[in-house]
Design goal:
single chain, seven-stranded mixed beta sheet
């Protein structure tokens, strides 16, 4: 059974930083592309960042480029999202996803709330 468990969300002031983690189990992590998506209140779920199997290629939504960094450690089946210079519009539930790229794959975590106050 595939499980993706996110952690690291919380409340932060604008301009601050947070690091999200996603621990994966039950899937061949090292051969899975991984990604982060987010969903703000009243909006659809949107792509944030993606990373290739080896970690050698990454992709970002224009809204987070230069502020967010996705990374992975295949030895521990973990993917990270380092978020800096956070803005109130980054407030959303952030979801870890496996198997996709800019479009999501089949597996989702339960989500972690990120709230940025102005």
């Amino acid at each position: 059974q595939v499980q993706l468990v996110e952690s690291g969300g919380g409340l932060v002031q604008a301009g601050g930083s947070l690091r999200l983690s996603c621990a994966a189990s039950g899937l061949p992590f090292s051969i899975s592309t991984m990604g982060w998506f987010r969903q703000a209140p009243g909006k659809g779920r949107e792509f944030v960042a993606g990373i290739s199997r080896s970690g050698g290629a990454t992709a970002y939504a224009d809204s987070v480029k230069g502020r967010f960094t996705i990374s992975r450690v295949n030895a521990t089946d973990t993917v990270y999202l380092q978020m800096t210079t956070l803005k109130p519009e980054d407030t959303a539930v952030y979801y870890c996803n496996a198997g996709g790229w800019r479009r999501p794959g089949n597996y989702w975590g339960q989500g972690t709330q990120v709230t940025v106050s102005s």
